[in-house]
Amino acid sequence: MIARRGEAVRQAVLMAALAELAEGGYAAFAIENVAARAGVHKTTVYRRWPDRESLLTDAVLERAAFDFELPDTGDIDADLRVWVQRLADWLTGPSGAPLVAMLRSDAARLPAVVEAKTRFFAHRAMVLSQRLESAVDRDQLPTGTDPLTFLATLVAPLYLNLLVLDRDLTPDHCDRSVHVALTAARANLLG
Amino acid sequence: MIARRGEAVRQAVLMAALAELAEGGYAAFAIENVAARAGVHKTTVYRRWPDRESLLTDAVLERAAFDFELPDTGDIDADLRVWVQRLADWLTGPSGAPLVAMLRSDAARLPAVVEAKTRFFAHRAMVLSQRLESAVDRDQLPTGTDPLTFLATLVAPLYLNLLVLDRDLTPDHCDRSVHVALTAARANLLG
Q1: Angle at CA A122, nearest 5°, toward A114 and A106?
Q2: Which of A106, A117, A163 minimises the CB distance to B26?
Q3: Tens-place pLDDT, residues A77-109
């Protein structure tokens, strides 16, 4: 084992915890395996995290801080396509995929996971809200669109593919989600 | 304990298994608890199902046989509103809710659960496909709508509410899903 500084060890353990969960699920999740994967002694893990719930809680909250920028080029259609593609890349990449796996495991019941999800959505709805307002100002969207309803319509097909249909997220899926949400908003269905 | 005939016992155990899973998740799922909930001796359960995977597999496949009719009154908008409301009632009722809970647990990894989901969607897409064709014949929809894409658009917001946002399914959610999917189909976005 290589001696590493505190923060590097912490990050290695948190990443290993997410990877372990993604691979084996929550029922089989064991701190010993996380330690082995991170290349540290299990007492190093236990010293900071007395149980698997506290370890996964930290791992999730750490990742929940991640954010992807919603551009404002003046073209709401193009900007949303970029944003949704970034979301899709994140959801299927090294940071997001373990979180998605968590939603498909018993860990979905952990209060920290529920809180992280709520924060995720509230934050994205806030970012989106500002961008939708500037689109309304440019007459690219009608007034009265509810940001949370718009967000739910926009991302629902992505989560369906990942959580229910076990399908990859293709660029076509992402672009279609954007077209559908904007078309619905312009038909005043998302108020 | 009351003596019951084979099929009644089987149904009681399968229902108890789903209820137990919905309440406690997969990690804590124990055949002893299922037996207690069903009011049978645990050896009665073990005689038919040697492990919890085989028990949950049977429970899921039994429920996957359920179906809800898609009416054909000649009005595709009204018929889909009825169908989606039926789906929502089922997903949140005594049969569907445990299956939704399973998707949020480690049991989502069981091959039987994956197979049941695939069958569910394929069957519904087939039913929907016939109904969409008759709507095209009546000029209520353009040709070229893909049934599986339409279905995914239609139900994605329901699953997002249940699996990610932890929200109830209101009649407004259901009606909006139908409006959004039909509006998208009529804009030729679901081909």
Answers
A1: 15
A2: A106
A3: 999 999 999 999 988 987 788 888 888 888 888
The residue of chain A nearest to residue B186, with distances taken between CA atoms, is A183
Instruction: Please classify residue A172 by burial: count the beta carbons closer than 10 Å to its beta carbon, then call 0-12 exposed, 13-18 middle and 19+ buried.
Output: exposed
What domains does chain A contain, in order, with CATH numbers? 6-51 (1.10.10.60), 58-186 (1.10.357.10)
Quick count: other Cβ atoms within 10 Å of Cβ B111?
A: 9
Cβ contact, residue pair A27, B106, below 8 Å: yes
The 10s digit of each residue's pLDDT in A121-166 is: 888 899 999 999 999 999 999 999 999 999 999 999 999 999 999 8
pTM over 0.95: no
Q: Do A183 and B179 touch (CB under 8 A)?
A: no
Cβ-defined contact of B180 to A176 (cutoff 8 Å): no
| ipTM given for this complex | 0.84
- A128: enclosing H helix or E strand: helix A111-137
Chain A residue numbers touching B176 (CB-CB < 8 A): 149, 189-190
Give yes or no for a contact between A44 and A9, defined as CB atoms under 8 angstroms apart.
yes
A65 touches chain B (CB under 8 A): no
Q: How far is CA B180 from CA A59, A181, A190, in A?
A: 36, 8, 9
Per-residue pLDDT reduced to its tens digit, A25-75? 888 899 999 999 999 999 999 999 988 888 988 887 776 656 678 999 999
Q: What is the pLDDT of residue B86?
A: 93
Chosen from B163, B166, B186 to mutate, greatest number of chain A CBs within 10 A: B163
The answer, for A117 touching chain B at a CB cutoff of 8 Å, is yes
Residue A179 has pLDDT above 80, yes or no: yes
A122 and chain B in contact, CB less than 8 A: no
